[in-house]
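Students often ask why inverse folding is considered easier than folding. One informal answer: many sequences map to the same fold, so there is more than one right answer. In these notes we will look at a single instance of the problem. The structure comes first.
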């Protein structure tokens, strides 16, 4: 398999809307028949009185049952396995920090399809075989390591499997091997930049051209800040272990939403309360059905991730539908004094300020039965002029802008650079110290 167009699955990448619809209808029938081979879906379909043959086109996806994270936990370890165990060559687990892990299985063909999706994703972001790629993601059960690794190799780049952490070594490797494409979480990319600045170094001097950034929510403002610091193009990258991992949706150079690979997933956006589709273009919960996975097909997986579809034509010419930057997860929504707040709304305000760095945390407490929110944010080493006057003005501005954004007053503490816990993987932004009741 030497031809680049074959390696990235160009025939899928270039599909027209009609071709996508036709392909999906076929692939859904195969995927449902395959799912029915697993004890979990066999029982589920039986309970619903559904025969795989009832699914005749992609529109019939609505007849299928939803699958939730809890279903995956209940099916642990292998109730959703749809092939003979000897056909499995890899498993991953999701990074959930609470409860039982959820295991996802892959056949050789599944791993190959995933590598193709990942290679295609990196390709549309602008990466080419002559690039040098450094993967700063955790290897192991987390999919950001091997997922990106296989994709980058499939594309044909020179791959450095650096893994996360050890920031000094990351910087040396990037420099010594003229790395042009990196992959990291946005919070870790920010940490590396701030470390360099603290040491009198300039992230721009690294010469990185493209950064694939994902695995956690981040705002457009955070993207701008990172692009400014490094001089690279920051490309949003989305995926989740249940749907393989990275490589579900990726940005093209127009950076106007992520193309979701519809040859591999059927996408729906639903209202999480009513479970009905939202009107086109409105924000709702992303629901995905696998089309090209044999070991573990998953029907209508409720991701909990909130986004909207962008159906206007993309100037890049690709016709796979785009999803907008995530607002957050339905389970990330904070309820503070009865007001619904997403951490991303706070990040948006913070990242607009040139005097502030990229690291912050939100602490929730209770005082006299009233919710209190304290935001600790690091000052920027190069942006801040060091005067008390500036600091006072900054706090005042932040408090006012946050009030406009979220509707109540938050305490803002501007802290020393490097004083908040640094992130190597997914950043933990919210500490909720409110006790129930
Ligand atoms: O984070 C897969 C991945 C690895 C994606 C590397 C991109 C890059 P999980 O650990 O299962 O898988 O976490 C999936 O992370 O449901 C979202 O809530 C969140 N997430 C992932 N990418 C983005 C993104 C990997 N670009 C969960 N924007 C998902 C916002 C994201 N949230």
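Output (designed amino acids):
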């Amino acid at each position: 398999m030497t031809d680049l167009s074959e390696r990235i699955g160009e025939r899928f990448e270039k599909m027209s809307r009609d071709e996508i619809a036709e392909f999906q209808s076929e692939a859904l029938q195969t995927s449902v028949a395959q799912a029915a081979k697993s004890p979990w879906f066999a029982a589920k379909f039986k309970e619903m009185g559904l025969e795989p043959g009832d699914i005749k086109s992609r529109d019939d996806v609505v007849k299928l049952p939803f699958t939730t994270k809890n279903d995956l936990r209940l099916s642990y370890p292998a109730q959703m396995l749809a092939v003979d165990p000897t056909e499995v060559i890899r498993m991953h687990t999701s990074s959930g920090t609470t409860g039982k892990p959820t295991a996802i299985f892959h056949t050789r063909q599944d791993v190959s399809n995933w590598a193709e999706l990942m290679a295609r994703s990196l390709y549309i972001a602008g990466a080419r075989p002559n690039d040098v790629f450094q993967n700063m993601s955790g290897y192991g059960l987390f999919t950001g390591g091997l997922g990106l690794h296989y994709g980058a190799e499939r594309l044909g780049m020179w791959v450095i499997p650096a893994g996360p952490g050890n920031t000094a070594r990351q910087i040396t490797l990037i420099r010594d091997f003229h790395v042009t494409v990196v992959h990291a979480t946005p919070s870790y990319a920010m940490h590396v930049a701030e470390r360099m600045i603290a040491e009198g170094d300039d992230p721009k001097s690294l010469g990185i051209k493209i950064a694939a950034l994902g695995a956690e929510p981040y705002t457009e403002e955070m993207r701008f800040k990172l692009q400014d610091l490094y001089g690279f193009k920051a490309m949003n990258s989305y995926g989740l272990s249940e749907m393989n991992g990275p490589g579900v949706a990726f940005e093209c150079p127009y950076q106007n939403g992520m193309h979701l690979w519809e040859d591999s997933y059927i996408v729906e956006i639903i209202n999480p309360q009513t479970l009905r589709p939202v009107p086109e273009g409105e924000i709702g919960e992303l629901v995905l059905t696998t089309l090209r996975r044999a070991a573990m097909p998953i029907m209508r997986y409720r991701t909990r991730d909130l986004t909207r579809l962008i159906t206007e034509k993309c100037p890049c010419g690709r016709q796979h539908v785009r999803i907008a930057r995530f607002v957050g997860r339905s389970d990330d929504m904070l309820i503070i004094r009865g007001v619904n707040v997403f951490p991303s709304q706070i990040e948006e305000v913070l990242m607009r300020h040139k005097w502030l760095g990229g690291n912050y945390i939100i602490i929730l407490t209770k005082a006299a039965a009233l919710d209190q929110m304290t935001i600790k944010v690091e000052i920027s080493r190069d942006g801040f002029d060091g005067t008390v006057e500036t600091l006072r003005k900054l706090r005042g501005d932040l408090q006012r802008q946050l009030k406009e954004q979220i509707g109540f007053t938050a305490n803002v503490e501007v802290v020393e650079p490097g004083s908040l816990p640094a992130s190597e993987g997914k950043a933990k932004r919210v500490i909720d110290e409110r006790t129930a009741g």
